[in-house]
Amino acid sequence: MQQIIRVQQVSQRFATASGEFLALDNVSFDIHEGETLSLIGHSGCGKSTLLNLIAGLTRPSSGVLLCDNREITGPGPERAVVFQN
């Protein structure tokens, strides 16, 4: 199966009034054609942060995200996020 998404050693940090907040720490995984991925976790654990990174809406503090072996540097027509209300 062809790899369509690769997340390699991705970390995301945010500056807050009380100091730095580490939302994602060294996350790595691949998604291959035909696979389904489910992100499950409590509020504030980094699910939306990871989706925003894969969609290209934000850049990681460190690490690399690839879609079809091309680095994700911004939004693209092959990726989308649908937010629930």
Can you offer a commentary on this structure?
This protein has 85 residues and is mainly beta. The chain has 1 helix and 4 strands; from the N terminus they run ββαββ. A hairpin with a 2-residue loop joins β3 and β4 (70-71). A 4-stranded antiparallel beta sheet has the order 2-1-3-4, with helices on one face. It has a single domain, classed as P-loop containing nucleotide triphosphate hydrolases (Rossmann fold, 3-Layer(aba) Sandwich).
Give the helix level as a range of percent: 10-25%
Strand order of the largest sheet: 2-1-3-4
Order of helices and strands: EEHEE
CATH T-level fold name? Rossmann fold
Strand content: 35-45%
Radius of gyration: 13 Å
Total domain count: 1
Number of strands: 4
Give the overall pLDDT as a whole number: 94
Structural class of the helix and strand makeup? mainly beta
**Sheet with the most strands?**
4 strands, antiparallel
Look at the structure and give the CATH class. Alpha Beta
Task: Work out the helix count.
Answer: 1
The H-level CATH homologous superfamily, spelled out, is P-loop containing nucleotide triphosphate hydrolases
